[in-house]
Every structure is written in C-alpha cells, then in structure tokens.
Amino acid sequence: MKCCNRYLLFMLLFFSMALQATPVSDIANTVHNLSSSGPGTVTATSESQICVFCHTPHDAEQVPAAPLWNRSLSGNTYTPYTSASMDAVGLNQPGGSSKLCLSCHDGTLALGAVNVLNGQSKVNIAMSGTSTTGGMPPGSGTQTGFTRNLGTNLTNDHPVSFPYDSTLASTDGELRDPALVSHIGNRVAGVRPPLVPLENGQLQCVSCHDPHIRDSNSAVNIKFLRLNRLQVSNPLGGNFDRNNDIICLACHDKLGQAWSMSAHANQTVADEIYSDTAAAQRDFPAGTQVWEAACLNCHDTHTVQGARRLLREGTDSLSRPKSGGNSAIEETCYQCHSSDGSVLLGQGGAGFPVPDIKTDFTSTRHMPITSADQPAGVEVHDITDADFSETTLLLGKGNAQNRHVECTDCHNPHRLMKNQLFNGSAGNTVGTHQHSATVQHSNIASGVLRGSRGVEPTYGSSTWGSVPSSYIVKQGDGGLGASTAVSSAHVTREYQVCLKCHSDYAYDIPPTLGDAGGGTPSGTNGLLQFTNQAMEFQAPVSDLGEPGGNHRGWHPVLGPTGRTAAVRGTTPSIFLAPFSDASGTNIGNQTMYCSDCHGSATANGTSEPSGGPDGAPWGPHGSTKDFILKGDWNNGTGTGQQDDLCFKCHNYDDYANPNNTAPKTSGFRASSSSGGMCGISYKSTNLHIGHARRIGRMECSWCHAAVPHGWKNKALLVDISQEGGRAPYSSAPYYMQAMLGGGGAVNWKSSGNWTSSDCGGVSWMGRSCSNPP
C-alpha cells in the first residue's frame, strides 16, 4: 500500500509538472532556427549557423538597445491597430524591438537577407520554404489569421509600442497597474527581467514573446510565449497566477472574478472539447477544452485581416478559414454558437449544450445582425469601453441609419454566466432565468445579461402617451451576490437591455417596419412604425390593482399589476405555467420578461423553447413568426388558433375554445344582477367562453389592443366609441378589427361586475354577436 501511495504521489507530481511545464531556451529546436538543421518548413539550403539569421558580433544595425541585429529594418509605413475602446496614447508606428520582429514578419524582406555572413556584407542566404519573393511564407493565406506574414496592415494585430502605465490602467479599468504588480515592468540591464518586460515603459512584441524558447514538451506549440498559452486550471479571479493563468491575464484582469465565473472561462461550464481539426488549425493540443482556450476562443492576437478587436474569424468572408473581408462580430460567436461551426465535438448534435444562435438569426424574422441587414450596410456598432458603452448616435438617435444589432449590444462575453440569475454563483449552471410555477416569476436578469449595458426609464407623468422624461444608464458589474434593486448602477432587469434600443432613448422618430433585413414587413397588422415600449410598459403606482373604474393596463414587464387572483376573483390556472400557481399568490405580484413573448417559435401552450433551460435559445434573436414572436399574432388570433401568441401564457380552453363546457372563472364575468346577457352561457363564470359559444368563435383583437404591451384602458381593452364608434375599426397601432364600444361608450366595471349594457349597449351587442366581422 505504501508503494502504491508513493506511486500515486509521483504520478500526481509528474502530471502537475507537465501541465505547468517551464519554457526552455533552446532556439535550435524551434522554427526560429532557420539554418539547414532547423525543424521548421523554412530552412537554409546549406547554411548551418543558427544565430547568424538575426545576430552578428560585428557591423550590426545601429538600433538603440538592439541585440547586435544582423538584418536591415523595414522602411515601410504601417497601419497600426486602433479602436474606439482603446485608451492607450501615442500609438503610431512600431518602434523599439518590435521593428526587429517586423523585419521578418511583415513579409517584405527576404528571410535569408543578412548584413554580415563570414565577413561578407549584404549576403542573401539561399532558403527553401519561403514565399515566392523569399520572405515569410503565407501559411493559410496572408489575409487569414493563420499566417505569420503580418504585412504592413497591423489593424488585425495586437498593438505594440505604446506606453503601458498607471494612467492607462486606470483609464481602461480592466488592466493591471504595472506600478502595483511585480510581474510587469521595465527590463533593466543585469537584472532578471520581469515576467512581462516593458521597453522604456512601452509594450513591445518581446513583452509577450521570447524568440528563443520552446515548451519542455517539444510537441506543444507555445508560440514563443513567455507565459502560459492556455489556462491550466480554473481562474481564481485575483492576482495573476503565472503557473495557472493564460498569458493574457497577466495584463488584462477582466474584473477578476467576473471573468473567472463567466461561461467562457469557468471549468464547470466551458467543458466542451475542440475537434482535432479545429485544435490543429489553432495549434491547440488535441483535447483542448473551451475553458482552457479561454481568451483564445474568441480572440487571436494576429487574426484575420478585416476583423476588429482581434476577434477570431470575425469577418464576413465565406472561406474557411476566413480570408479578409469586412468586420462581422457575429461570425466570431458563430464558431461555437451554431450547428455548422465544426469547432467543438458534438456541435450541431442533439443535446449539445452550447446554444445555436445562428439558426435563430437566419430565421424568417430576425434581428439585423449582419451588415447587409442593417440600414447603413456596414458594421456601425462601436463600443468605447469595457462596459461596451455606445453613444446614442450609434444606436440611431440623430441618425436612423445607424440602428443595428450586434451580439455585444446585449451580452458582455467577458462577464456573462450560465446561471438563472445575473448575481448567482457559478455552481447554478442553468441556461436561463427561473421559469417554473414553483417560484414566483420575475423580470430579474439572468446570467447571460450579467455586466451588460441598459437603461432604466424615469417618468414625469403617468398619463398614457407620455414618454419617459429621462433614462438612467445601467452599466458595470455588481459582482457576486450583487443587489437586484432596480436602482442599482448595473443592469438588474432584462427590459433594461431591451429598452436601450426599443424606446426613444435610441431614436427620435419611431423606426419603420421593414427598414432592416429580416424585419417584419411594413403594413403587418396595419403597422407602419414600431411603438415606444418604455411608454407602453409603464406601471404607474396609481393604477395598481383595481382602483375603481378605468385604469391603465399593462403586461408586467417593468412592474407587477397588483391585480391578483383574489382581487379579480379568478381561478389561477386560467393562466398557464409558470404564471399560475395553486394558491394564486403569484398572479398580480409577478413580473415577466420581454423574451417570454419574443424569441423562436415554441410549441402549443408554452413559452418555453424546445429542450428547456439548456435547449434552444431563449432570447429574441429570431423566429419564423412576425415581430420575432413565439407564436402568431394577427387579426385571426383566437378560436381555432391554439398555437398563437396569447395562448402561450393564457389557457386557450378558458379564453377561446367554444367547446369548453367547464370553463374556469375569469375576471371577465357578469354580476348576479346583469340580466339575460343575450342568452350567453357561463355569464357569471367566464364571458370569454360564453361569447365564444354564442358567436362560434372569439378573436382577441375584437376587444383588446393590437399591441399588447400596455394600454390606456384596463385589461388592454379598446373602446372604439372614442374613435367614432364604427365597427369593426382598424387603425394602427392599437386597433385591429376592434369591436368593443361600437354601440356606445364602454362603462368601466371591476372584474366580475360587467353587465350587458356596459360594452356598447344590449341591442348593438346582440346585432354584433349575430353578425361578427
């Protein structure tokens, strides 16, 4: 037994050392050995000296602090990396030792061209495996992310030659301060350099790379990186751990724990495995998991030409690997979030845990995710900081052509979690919000919206039609166990993210239908323009419950209605799960999400996508239905259309089924003194079913507003007497084949107290029921 224990201890130590292998200085066994004995594809045909391709003891280039450089420097002018969210100053042409790297890696100079060889000047060593001009070979193509011929356009390459100091770290907010950590600092002669050495306070190529090193396992390609190329163990989110953390975290702390708990970094969640083909293309070891690849899942320090923010495969190129093209952020996400990305084992198969977002975005109706779909025809989206902030101008206010959608408008990939709640722990790995009748339904943001940016409307008036007086921007990350209060500085509600675009925060004039590819065509349901959801969903305190007479009505997205089952005298199960509960305490006190109605089409009688919380996507990415709804909504919604939107939450049998002989109690019922009600059955129980049986069918828009977000009347009821009284009446956006009030003004009654004369008059109602539209 002791022998066995010693053996196990040895093996644990062995594998631990293997995972934390220390790079060794051995240029002879790296691709930087360009001599005839080199192991790479580019080698000299006969020259056996190794160091001569870069260094000479005599007649070296006159470059300050250069290590006896034996190559001429390129005289090219470079196009450096830049972005609206980059806070570094003084970013211009590459300088310092980075110029030495580019003398080979910009591809303009022959690799065999050296200043001195065996006492001879300006010698061109014969080489094999180079480009046709003798320079750096193209790899998979000079416009791809799988080449080390970087060219002179460095907009797709990590920036270099910029000051990295405390000011930059403070301004950025997600960088480590070199003045406060010991592993970042200037290289000093005669002193062992820090883990991330700077040159005169500037970040250069050699801050990350040492051109002489390899992994102790020669089969592992570490790209000459001074620190780990992959994550070794689950990140802890605190100080940089050189033994376990990927090199990116040496500088980018990404709010520490926010990144470590994210769905792209957490070992418990991101355990999908790269296919051998995808791993080999990226020079990952076989069997690499998503959490190990970490930053490199989405970013590549030398990515495809045309991509922004170093996004891996982030262009609209149709080739694989992508070669050039224009920036297309969604393509980076589609690598994994699609059925055809061919990156992860099992991708596209049944039960694959990564949501297939691409299929939704290619549905008949979808958000304008591609540049071709967007009014401007180019990628307008441009964030300014780590919170993914964007100006209202770029959202469309002041220029409607700027309206757009990108994945990062709604999600912060460095912070989002697979969790029911945005402030939950990483152990709760459920793919979406709490959606069960056992828990009171809420509108609290789920983990996929953690750290996103949104707005909270504030109101100066509760009068219908009054738009918000202002909007409070919500951004940042509250951390583990963050407050769920609406007043918090960070996003706490899904609607806050939605209203960032779907309100007058992002436009001057409401957008027109059909103004973007994948949108609902103009004229659908009579609509020409979208409505202001921040105005419609307002939940005024003065209109909570049944205050008497008429009052505003709304679906409880911003706030509850206060109209409980007890207040209205209804049977709780007239609603479907999760909005019903046996006691009826949830109804009227609960709230809901925009995505309870908007998203890919769902089965009859449920708003839950196929596969449940970890199945099909829950968000409003796309649908086969107009307005990206989970079911149809039109002037036929009602009897015979069980699959339509209303009946995802409202029980069809109790609202529109004329064959129901035992309807549950509804808030729409008559008082005991209401009289005959034209022979309508179930008058004291359920007048929805009573009308359906009397007429033979029932259509929702006969009585209810055609845009059911919110309305000026209780229960979203129309009153066309205010519009001239001619029935059926249609006038976008709120009237679609409306009938209620056609015989005279509606007399507003509390639930359970309606009479035959309250809806426009007994005679008119009788005639209308006999001859419905």
UniProtKB/TrEMBL annotation:
Keywords: Signal. InterPro entries: Multihaem_cyt_sf, Multiheme_Cytochr_ET. One of its GO terms (molecular function) is oxidoreductase activity. Residues 603-634 are annotated as: Disordered. SUPFAM superfamilies: Multiheme cytochromes. PANTHER family: DISSIMILATORY SULFITE REDUCTASE SIRA, SURFACE LOCALIZED DECAHEME CYTOCHROME C LIPOPROTEIN. This is Cytochrome c family protein. It comes from hydrothermal vent metagenome.
